[in-house]
Design goal:
It is globular, with a radius of gyration of 17 Å. The protein has about 260 residues and is α/β, with parallel strands linked by helices. The protein starts with a strand and ends with a strand. The chain is about 15% helix and about 30% strand. The protein is built from five helices and 15 strands.
């Protein structure tokens, strides 16, 4: 059977355009220009230091948005919110769907739904557990996503804003994705503790998904991100794992035959 191409384009921050078999998806839409921002559901002011590689009006038609959470501005900004009504469906947390309304559809970890694209092709979309910070730090519900073709989770795993913990480890036991998108950056918006994956978490993921290609996102463009892609690549090289981490530059599509 001929293989299909999974094409991933990093737009900036956590925002990735996913194209597979004619279906087009977008993760956490953020398209606003640099500046200081505060989301509607968070008291924290975030400083955006660089803009998107692709403007929102250049993205084109989308079948769905995969939104890890709606309450932090670096995952859903003003332009991203304005985009949502024009998308077929927005998959997100149950609490986020209640806040967003409209086409937002919430589901619980390991709940699977079927997405039918405008071209009639289908993908399994499974919500995956996420923990956005250390135990005791409650920043609201967050979710990741596993996409499947023949069965749930056999194509792509998107961690969303999370640390490596028992929930992400459970994803590795249940699914065997060809590609994993790690939300890294070692974010420190409130103090000297991480809210997203750092190098140590990424190394855990590499061990847990030994057959998957790894890409890292959400590690540039915001002042509270403390570890960029080059630093992460250096750590992987130190452990002789450079071949596991695919370089992911803004605006440059990366294709995987899957």
């Amino acid at each position: 059977m001929a293989k299909s191409n999974l094409i991933l384009t990093l737009i900036g921050g956590p925002t990735v355009l996913i194209e597979f078999d004619g279906i087009r998806l977008l993760t956490d839409p953020t398209f606003d220009p640099p500046g200081d921002y505060k989301g509607a559901h968070s008291p924290v002011v975030h400083r955006k230091t660089s803009g998107p590689a692709i403007a929102v009006d250049q993205v084109g038609s989308l079948d769905a948005v995969l939104l890890s959470h709606d309450h932090h501005f670096d995952n859903l900004d003003n332009s991203g919110r304005a985009l949502l009504p024009n998308v077929g469906v927005t998959f997100t947390t149950n609490s986020g769907a209640e806040r967003l309304g409209g086409n937002a559809l919430g589901f619980a970890p390991f709940e699977t739904r079927t997405l039918e694209g405008k071209n009639g092709k289908r993908l399994f979309v499974t919500a995956t557990p996420a923990r956005h910070g250390p135990v005791g730090v409650d920043v609201g519900d967050v979710v990741g996503f596993a996409l499947g073709v023949k069965e749930p989770g056999d194509l792509l795993y998107i961690t969303g804003d999370t640390l490596w913990f028992s929930g992400t480890e459970e994803v590795s036991r249940r699914f065997s994705p060809k590609v994993v998108i790690l939300f890294t950056g070692a974010a420190e918006p409130k103090g000297r503790f991480h809210m997203t994956m750092g190098s140590e978490d990424a190394l855990e993921a590499a061990a847990a998904f030994p057959e998957a290609a790894l890409l890292s996102v959400h590690n540039e463009g915001w002042g509270h991100l403390k570890e960029d892609q080059d630093q992460l690549a250096h750590v992987f090289a130190t452990f002789n794992l450079s071949d596991r981490l695919t370089r992911f530059d803004k605006g440059k599509p990366v294709a995987f035959a899957v």
